[in-house]
């Protein structure tokens, strides 16, 4: 979730049971996808799929938030693209806490997206998995079932006659979506295996703004599980950083008012603490950049294009926001493929 000091959020949801705590976390799925849809609607990047998963926000999002989402989507998709190229698509991708993410569809068919970001055509892994809470998966599946723009790419790639589908999962040849709790690793593993996850294939696992909602112990267990299960793998993590200051405190308080606890914020102290968590849980290399640094490395032409979309009166707002988010990536094995050289 993006926070800006320009727009603190004071809305509240009341309840206090453990499941209600998860409700606050699940609510972040809507927040992220609404922000992405808003940025797409004013031209930050091309994504014809997001509109089928989420409504358009009535209220304008601040320009620094839109630019933040642009850098986030751009940075993550650069890393995904590099992994697909290094493995020549002989790999799988597992998006953990995927929410309404549309990367599978953009990878499959959105040549316009590739034109904007990569100047080339689509790349697709052997299989793309998404995992989120069952309630979120049920919602996503509903959209997939009833919108042909979403179901067609899945069906086109599916050679067999029958498709495995129920309210909380869909398993097809190249795409699977699974309802599971990332804190319950035996359940997660069992469901992924049922959908033919192949631990021998080079695997890209990703968490985009997800680990911060789990305790440090739970996220460490997830990272360890991932490192132990795949010999050749890469992990991408996007989330908060530098959370010890006033801005971080405001973000924590705003979310707490909405019954959403940043249970893992302790690990979001610095780029060093982010890297350390990866390295101490079985990953061999770890890199991290804050989003302001990443923004400054974006192609100049793209930055000029998006900066002309909306006027940003105070550059400091963007800097402040971007210094509180980071993109981290880690690898294990795969030296022969050049995974360790991947950077964004
Ligand atoms: C901020 S949203 C981000 C969604 C998506 N990754 C994106 O960036 O658009 C966080 C997502 O993580 C999911 N999530 C958080 N904790 C989870 C858990 N323990 N098990 C499954 N999903 C979880 C939430 O339901 C939500 O969809």
TrEMBL record:
Root EC class: transferase
Reaction it catalyzes: [phosphatase 2A protein]-C-terminal L-leucine + S-adenosyl-L-methionine = [phosphatase 2A protein]-C-terminal L-leucine methyl ester + S-adenosyl-L-homocysteine
Entries under Pfam families matching the protein: LCM
Keyword Methyltransferase on entry: yes
GO cellular component terms given for this protein: cytosol
Keywords: Methyltransferase, S-adenosyl-L-methionine, Transferase
Lineage: Eukaryota, Metazoa, Chordata, Craniata, Vertebrata
Name under which the protein is recorded: Leucine carboxyl methyltransferase 1
Functional description taken from the UniProt entry: Methylates the carboxyl group of the C-terminal leucine residue of protein phosphatase 2A catalytic subunits to form alpha-leucine ester residues.
Residue ranges with Low complexity bias: 1-17
PANTHER family cross-referenced by the UniProt entry: LEUCINE CARBOXYL METHYLTRANSFERASE, LEUCINE CARBOXYL METHYLTRANSFERASE 1
Record-stated family: Belongs to the methyltransferase superfamily. LCMT family.
GO biological processes: methylation; negative regulation of protein-containing complex assembly; regulation of apoptotic process; regulation of mitotic cell cycle spindle assembly checkpoint
Transmembrane helix found in the keyword field: no
């Amino acid at each position: 979730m993006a926070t800006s000091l320009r727009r603190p959020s004071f809305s509240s949801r009341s309840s206090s049971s453990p499941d209600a705590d998860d409700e606050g976390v699940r609510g972040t799925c809507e927040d992220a996808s609404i922000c992405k849809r808003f940025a797409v609607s004013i031209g930050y990047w091309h994504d014809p799929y997001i509109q089928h998963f989420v409504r358009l926000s009535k209220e304008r999002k601040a320009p620094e938030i839109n630019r933040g989402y642009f850098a986030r989507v751009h940075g993550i998709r650069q890393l995904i693209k590099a992994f697909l190229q290094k493995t020549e698509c002989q790999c799988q991708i597992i998006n953990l806490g995927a929410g309404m993410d549309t990367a599978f569809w953009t990878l499959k068919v959105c040549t316009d997206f590739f034109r904007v970001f990569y100047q080339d055509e689509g790349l697709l892994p052997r299989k793309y998995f998404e995992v989120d809470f069952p309630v979120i998966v049920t919602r996503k599946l509903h959209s997939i079932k009833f919108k042909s723009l979403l179901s067609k790419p899945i069906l086109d790639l599916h050679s067999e006659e029958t498709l495995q589908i129920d309210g909380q999962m869909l398993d097809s040849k190249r795409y699977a979506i699974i309802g599971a709790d990332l804190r319950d690793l035996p359940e997660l593993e069992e469901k992924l295996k049922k959908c033919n996850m192949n631990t021998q294939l080079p695997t890209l696992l990703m968490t985009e703004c997800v680990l911060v909602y789990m305790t440090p112990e739970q996220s460490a267990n997830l990272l360890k599980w991932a490192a132990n299960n795949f010999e050749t793998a890469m992990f991408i993590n996007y989330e908060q950083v530098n959370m010890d200051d006033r801005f971080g405190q405001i973000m924590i308080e705003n979310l707490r008012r909405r019954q959403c606890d940043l249970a893992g914020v302790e690990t979001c102290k610095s780029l060093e603490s982010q890297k350390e968590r990866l390295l101490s849980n079985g990953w061999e290399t770890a890199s991290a950049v804050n989003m302001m640094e990443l923004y400054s490395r974006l192609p100049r032409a793209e930055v000029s294009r998006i900066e002309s979309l909306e006027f940003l009166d105070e550059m400091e707002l963007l800097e402040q926001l971007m210094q509180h988010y980071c993109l981290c990536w880690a690898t294990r094995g795969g030296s022969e493929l050049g995974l360790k050289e991947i950077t964004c």
